[in-house]
Design brief:
Elements lengths: L8 H11 L2 H6 L16 E6 L3 H11 L6 E6 L5 E2 L5 E8 L7 E2 L7 E9 L6 H8 L5 E5 L6 E5 L5 E5 L6 E5 L5 E7 L3 E5 L5 E6 L8 E2 L2 H4 L4 E10 L2 E3 L3 H8 L5 E7 L9 E3 L13 E7 L3 H12 L7 E5 L36 E5 L13
Parallel strand pairs: 1-2, 2-4, 3-5, 4-6, 6-7, 7-9, 8-10, 9-11, 10-12, 11-13, 12-14, 13-15, 15-17, 17-19, 19-20, 20-21
Antiparallel strand pairs: 15-16, 16-18
Length: 378
């Protein structure tokens, strides 16, 4: 008795998933007719071929109107064209060729694709036009661009989540998405970021080339709904920070902000930037933030305590605090920067004290002590 063939399709898909090799999977049809096209109806499919166009069309035709969780198509350098007309659910395209031209068509109307994961290494096609015209119902878009995409202009009515990462050549990111909730810009070297998204709730912004004002253009009404900021950087030199950098600006202008994850940096490329003292009386407190994660990066040991303490003074209503220290880049030896200037000789002296009276949870990882101990008045 063939008990395995009697199992439901969902369990057979799991079994075939462990087989992995496409040829071996198709050969299971020799077992019985029951196995002939079981794999075609899997919720998640990955197709890797030089020219998968007709094969993809055949697979999707067999599925008819079945829902699909994920369809991933990998095209080798010999591939030239694919037209997955019936893809729905989550749709993934990955191009890892060395620059050979590829023609790519996303599903045409009626479109059921709601999630697209695109690896556009070495691609030069107008991604914004492609997505806007082909996927009007798109809710999730993740783009990995190693090179070749200097500008990304995107207009997407239904888009809710956007992630752009590893875009080393991306000079400008311009997004208009009235329903966007989550924006991630990770490990990019972007000069200009323009975002129009009035329902934005979370921003993750980790940009290698440090973004300065006014290169970040987000209208104030689009910041009102932001509740979480992650990955942002603040250049701290003791109690001073650079006023032109966007990290602290975002924290000050997202008035509904509740959680912040921030990286503290001690940059050595000072060129006369305007500097602000975070401990001065003019530095207004940011009272809505109740949860914070601080990760000091490239902060010399002797400025670590002053930098962290000065930042915390801006957030008197914290209830949860995590400081994660993973070592410093320079230790006691560092390049020359504005900290050596006479005008800022008091850079580590903090005369004002702030009590974190609401603090309930504190986690400090990797702190070994510096010239002075970190003191929190709880």
């Amino acid at each position: 008795m063939d008990r395995i063939s009697a199992l439901p399709d969902e369990l057979l898909h799991v079994i075939l998933g462990f087989v992995g090799d496409a040829l071996a999977v198709t050969r299971t049809a020799a077992l019985s007719r029951r196995w002939r096209h079981v794999w075609v109806h899997a919720k998640s499919l990955t197709i890797d071929a030089a020219a998968p166009g007709r094969f993809v069309d055949w697979v999707l035709a067999r599925r008819a109107d079945e829902d699909m969780g994920s369809l991933q198509i990998r095209i080798s350098p010999q591939g030239r064209r694919t037209s997955p007309e019936q893809a729905n659910g989550s749709f993934a395209l990955r191009f890892r060729d060395s620059g050979a031209p590829l023609a790519v068509e996303l599903p045409a109307d009626p479109v059921r694709a709601t999630s697209i994961d695109m690896d556009l290494s070495n691609r030069r096609r107008a991604l914004g036009d492609l997505v806007t015209s082909s996927c009007p119902r798109l809710r999730t878009l993740r783009v990995v661009v190693a090179a070749g995409l200097p500008y990304l202009v995107l207009r997407a009515e239904a888009l809710e989540e956007l992630e752009v990462s590893f875009a080393w050549c991306l000079r400008a990111l311009d997004v208009t998405a009235p329903n966007l909730r989550l924006l991630k810009v990770k490990r990019c070297a972007t000069d200009v970021v323009r975002i129009v998204a009035p329902r934005l709730e979370e921003i993750f912004m980790s940009i290698c080339r440090r973004l300065t004002l006014p290169a970040l253009d987000i209208p104030q009404d689009c910041l009102a709904s932001v509740r979480r900021l992650k990955g942002i950087s603040v250049d701290m030199h003791g109690k001073y920070h650079r006023a032109t950098y966007v990290g602290l600006w975002l924290m000050e202008n997202c008035h509904g902000l509740e959680h912040v994850s921030v990286r503290l940096r001690h940059g050595d490329d000072y060129h006369g930037d305007e500097l602000l003292d975070l401990t001065s009386e003019a530095a207004a407190p940011i009272v809505n933030v109740t949860s914070m994660v601080v990760r000091p990066i490239e902060v010399p040991d002797r400025y670590l305590v002053a930098s962290v303490s000065a930042l915390l003074m801006r957030f008197p209503c914290l209830r949860s605090l995590s400081v994660k220290i993973y070592g410093t880049k320079w230790g006691t030896v560092r390049p020359k920067c504005f900290c050596d200037a006479v005008a800022y000789s008091d850079k580590c002296e903090i005369h004002r004290k702030e009590a974190l009276e609401l603090l309930e949870e504190v986690e400090i990882t990797g702190f070994t002590g510096a010239d002075e101990e970190m003191k929190l008045n709880l």
